[in-house]
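Please, is this right?
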Amino acid sequence: MYMMSISQESHQIIRQTYKCLMKILLVTAIFLYPTIISASNSFYTSALNGFNEKNFENAIRYLEKDIVFNPKSSESYILLGKSYEGLDDQNNALKYYEIAFTLIPHNLELNYLIGKVSYELGLIEQYAEQISNLEVLCQTSCEEIVKLKDLAE
């Protein structure tokens, strides 16, 4: 009987401690969430500034931090691809464009960028696939498809 009361008391103490810890965790998360969003916005802004100044290494460093906080940011992946293109690293550019493509396959600019880099890398099937995608997306002639077809001429 004595063992049973100790067990019940222990269970109550554990339950109270758990509830207290969960409250602390919830309050901490509520206070940290705006800081995380602010950090992510700051990283992307810094990356964009670096990219605009043609400091591609700096842009890449900030974008890699940004995608940690915002892994579904297609804009960050596209800018990463453009930054790697700025460094003449088409393989990494294509890698990040393809990640962005999984998030927004309907984006005209992105389809063009993938097609362009694929053509530059000699991936003719992938280049042709992007032309097909753009033909479906544009329905009539659009700037992206014209520029992409001009690469092969």
